[in-house]
Amino acid sequence: MADAALRLRSLIEQVLGAPLPVRIRAWDGSQAGPPGAPALVVHHRRALRRLLFKPGELGLARAWVAGELDVDGDLYTALDLLAGLIWERGEDARTLGEALRDPEVRAAVRGLVRLAGPPLPPAPPAEEMRRRRGHLHTRRTDKRAISHHYDVGNDFYEIVLGPSMVYSCAYWPDPDASLETAQRDKLELVCRKLALKPGQRLLDVGCGWGSMAIHAAREHGVSVVGITLSQEQAAYARKRAADEGLTDRIEIRVQDYRDVRDGPYDAISSIGMAEHVGADRYLEYAQNLYALLAPGGRLLNHQIARRPQRDESAYDVDEFIDAYVFPDGELQPVGTTVALLERAGFEVRDVESIREHYARTLRRWVANLEADWARAVQLTSPGRARVWRLYMAASALSFERNRIGVNQVLAVKTPESGASGMPLRARTWN
C-alpha cells in the first residue's frame, strides 16, 4: 500500500507541533493534505536523509537544489504557507533540541529515520559553496565569495535581469512600466540624488555589469571609475562601455574597495554592494568611502536591511543564502547603517525606503527565469537555476511581508563650515 505521504505528513506535524498547510506527494505516488493547496513533492527519500542530517533550512535547501524536493502549484503561495513553520517561528520558537525532549517528537524522528532508508548522508549538491576555515571578509575570501555569486555566466544573468543588466532594486514611479524602464529610472534617481554634473568624478563601488557607470557618463557627463571583484562582470562592463563609445570617461577595475587610493571623488554610488561587506568591516568600509570623497561630496548607499532583533547578538545569517547565493553576506538594520555612516564622519541627509519596489523587481526576475528556463539550465546547471528561482521568489515574499527592506541612504562629507550643498528640501512627497 502506497502511504509514504500520509506517514510523512503525520511525522512532520508531530515534529513541528503544528498542522502542515500544504499537501505532500511522495515518491511512491501517495498524497496527503488539504485538497487544492500547493503540493510539496518529495521525489526521493534522500530528501528525508538530508533533513535528518541537516535539520532546518540547509537540509531543505540541499533537497531542493538536488531536485529531490519540488513544489506542484504556485511557488509563491507554497512559500508563503510554509514561511510560518520554517522561516517565521520567531525568536521564542523552540529549538530542535528542546523539541526532542518530548517523547512523542523523539518517536516521530525515529519514524522519519525508518522512512528515510539507509542512514548515509548524501553529499551536498555541487552548487553549494565549500567552506574554508579562516577569517571572513578578507580580500581573498571576499573575492572568492563574489566569484561564487557572480561568475556563473553573463548569459545567465542576461536571462534573469533583462537588457538593463542591473542587479539591484528597480524604481517604479509607473507600476505598469517595463523592468528596463524601472531600472533606468532607478539609475537616474541615484544620479539626481548625487547631483552629478559634467566633469565630476564618480566612484561606483560594486559596479556590476557597468549599467550605473554608463548611465552616469552618458546622461550626466561625469567620469566614472567602476570597481568589482568579478572578472566576468568587469569584462562585460568594459565591452559595454566600448560599444557606447565611453571608454574615455569610464574605467572598470577588478579592485577591492579597500585598495582604491586615487581620490578625491565628487560622488560615490554603492548600489547593492554593502551587503557583502560584513558587520565587522562596515565601519572600515564607511571610513574608506569618506576618505575618498572631496569635501561636500555625496555618497548614495543603496542597501538591503533586515528587521532588528531584541537580541542582536543572536542574529544568524540565512543558511540557504549563505551556502548557495551570497556567501558571507550579512544584513543589518537600517538604523545600524545610518549610525555607522555617521560614525565615519558622514552627515546623513536622506533615507528613502523602496521596499515594495524590490518585491516587484524580484517577481519580474523570476518571470524572466521561468520564461527561458531550458536555456538557463543549459547555461548553468539544473541546481543553479533552482537556487535562483527559490531565492528570488522567497526574497520577493520577504520584501512584501516587511521581513526585509531596502533603503537609499544619501550622505554628505560636510566640511567644517557646515555648508552641505544640499537644498533646503531635498525631495517632495506626493
Characterise the protein shown here.
The protein has 430 residues and is an alpha/beta fold. Helices cover 44% and strands 15% of the residues. It contains 17 helices and eleven strands. The strands form two sheets. The protein has a seven-stranded mixed beta sheet. The radius of gyration is 23 Å and the shape is elongated. The model is unreliable at 89-94 (pLDDT under 50).
For the report, how would you describe the main beta sheet? Answer: 7 strands, mixed
**SSE series:** HEEEHHEHHHHHHEHEHEEHEHHEHHHE
Radius of gyration, whole Å: 23 Å
Query: Regions with pLDDT < 50 over 5+ consecutive residues?
Result: 89-94
Helices and strands: which structural class?
A: alpha/beta
User: Which shape, going by the Cα principal axes?
Assistant: elongated
CA distance, first residue to last residue: 63 Å
The helix tally amounts to 17
Strand order of the largest sheet: 7-6-5-8-9-11-10
Helix fraction, binned, reads 40-55%
As a percent range, the share of strand residues is 15-25%
Number of strands: 11
Mean pLDDT: 88
List keywords for this structure.
seven-stranded mixed β-sheet, about 425 residues, alpha/beta
List the helices and strands and how they pair.
Elements: H1 4-16, E1 23-25, E2 31-32, E3 39-42, H2 46-53, H3 57-65, E4 69-72, H4 75-86, H5 96-99, H6 103-116, H7 139-150, H8 154-161, H9 179-194, E5 201-205, H10 211-220, E6 223-228, H11 231-243, E7 250-254, E8 265-271, H12 282-292, E9 293-306, H13 319-324, H14 334-343, E10 347-353, H15 355-371, H16 373-379, H17 382-400, E11 404-412
Parallel strand pairs: 1-3, 5-6, 5-8, 6-7, 8-9
Antiparallel strand pairs: 1-2, 3-4, 9-11, 10-11
